[in-house]
Amino acid sequence: MLFPIICLGVLVLGQTQAGGVSHPSGALGSIDSQPIYEKDIDEFRKPRETRSAALDRYILFQLAVREARRQRLDRTPEVQQELDRLLYQAYLKKELSKKARQLEPSPAELRVLYERQPMIRLRHLVLFAKTDKQKKAAQTTLKKIQKALKAGVPFKKLVTEYSEDSSARFAGDLDFKGAERLPAPLYQAGLALKKGGISIPIQYENAYHLVALLDRQDFSKAPATYLAYLSSQEKQKKEKELLTASLSSLKKKAKVKNFLETEKQPWDSE
Predict the structure, then answer these.
(1) Contact 103/96 with Cβ under 8 angstroms?
(2) 8-state DSSP, 200
(3) From CA 127, how far away is CA 158, in angstroms rounded?
(4) ∠ CA 266-269-270 to the nearest 5 degrees?
(5) Helix (H/G/I), strand (E/B), else coil: 12
(6) Residues 179 and 122 sit within 8 Å (Cβ to Cβ)
(7) Per-residue DSSP letters for 178-199?
(8) Whole-structure pTM over 0.90, yes or no?
C-alpha cells in the first residue's frame, strides 16, 4: 500500500515492504516533486552525520534559498558583491587547475630549492637587550666575546659562559633546522657562513645574537616534512606568478583607465 510521508515540506513516496521503505529511482526525497539524490547531499553532509539529518539540513537550505530568490534578495547589492567575490575565487581556481601539474615542483627543481635553502646546524649565543641598561651591558659583553674569539677561545665555551638563552644548556647547539624553523635574520646569517664561521652581532627582537655554522645537511638526508615545506612555498610562488599573469592579460584586453595611478600612497615616503 502506497502512503505519503511528509517531512519539512518534503514528499517522499515509499511503500511498505518487509525490507522497509524503498524510493523510486534512488531518490532520497523531493521538494515539490523535484527529486533529491545521494549526490546532492554528499558534499553537504557533515562528518558522522546520518543521511537523514543531512537530508533535513539540505532541504531547509534549499527552501531558504528558494524563498530568498522569491524575495529577490539575490538582486541586492550586498548579495551581488558576495557573488562577485565567489566568481572571482572561482575564476582563480579554474586558472590554477588548468596548469596544476606545472605548478608542482619537479624532483630536479626541489633539489635546487634545497641547495638554496638547506637545513643548517647553528650554534647560537644570545644577549638580551630590551632595556637601555641591558643593551649597554650586552654591548660590553660583545666586546669581551669578540676579544676572546680573536685570542682563540672556542665559541662553544663562550656560548656556555655568556649566552642568556635556554639553548646555552646545550652550548647553543640548535641542531639541524630549516628556513621555516629559524628567524629569517639568523637563518640568512648562518647561510652566508662557511662551516665553522661565526657571524657578526645581529640585533633582532630586543637581543644581540651571534651564530656559528656547524654544518649543512645533505639533500639525501633532508626530512620529507622540510622538502614538503619547500615544495609548498615554491608552488605558492608559481601560483602567484600564474594568477598575476592571467589577471594582467585580462587588463590588457580591456579598456582600463586608473585615474589614481599617480596618487601617492600613505606608506610612500615624503
Answers:
(1) yes
(2) P
(3) 12
(4) 95
(5) strand
(6) no
(7) -TTTS-HHHHHHHHTSPTT-BP
(8) no
Q: How far is CA 58 from the centre of its chain?
A: 31
Whole-number Å distance between alpha carbons of 14 and 38: 16
For 230-245, write each residue's pLDDT tens digit: 999 999 999 999 999 9
For the chain, the maximum distance between any two Cα atoms, rounded to a whole number of angstroms, is 101
Cα–Cα distance, 216 to 120 (Å, whole number): 4
User: Which DSSP category does 254 fall into?
Assistant: S
Q: Rounded to the nearest 5 degrees, what angle is found at the Cα of 198, between the Cα atoms of 175 and 178?
A: 35
In 121-175, which ranges are continuous DSSP H helix? 132-150, 155-162
Phi then psi for 18, rounded to 5 degrees? Answer: -60, -30
Ordered DSSP codes for 129-141: -SSHHHHHHHHHH
- In this structure, what C-alpha cell is assigned to residue 158? 663562550
Residues 195-252: tens digit of each pLDDT: 999 999 999 999 999 999 999 999 999 999 999 999 999 999 999 999 999 999 999 9
The order of strands in the sheet holding 34-36 is: 2-7, 10-15, 29-31, 34-36
